[in-house]
What we know:
The chain is an all-alpha fold. Helix content is 71%, strand content 0%. Helix 1 crosses helix 3 (95-108).
Amino acid sequence: xxxxxxxxxxxxxxxxxxxxxxxxxxxxxxxxxxxxxxxxxxxxxxxxxxxxxxxxxxxxxxxxxxxxxxxxxxxxxxxxxxxxxxxxxxxxxxxxxxxxxxxxxxxxxxxxxxxxxxxxxxxxxxxxxxxxxxxxxxxxx
Length: 141
């Protein structure tokens, strides 16, 4: 027979409200950070494709101005590295990164249609994280 009585208290640890709120904030920050990093990877791929197209067109025209292809490539790479950096720091929950991530989410709304969708989700998860990160103080009874 078992030593435990069916009326014994549960042995599982009970999480308090603050730790649950902190865990929810982390989940929202991680989701927003993942979306910002996704935007960074999409920017990098798009930049390589555009630079490749400019390079092919330049070479077909017979000119030796292939360095023109480096200008959009450099701009897209710098933007992509910035997005990847900010996304990694949003995932870590850094306050400055959440502000920059919000600005990037607003700017992403202009990139119709995929960027608009990703930007809306970035803002959604960042706002959810901000509200859950600042719980209302407990009211005295």
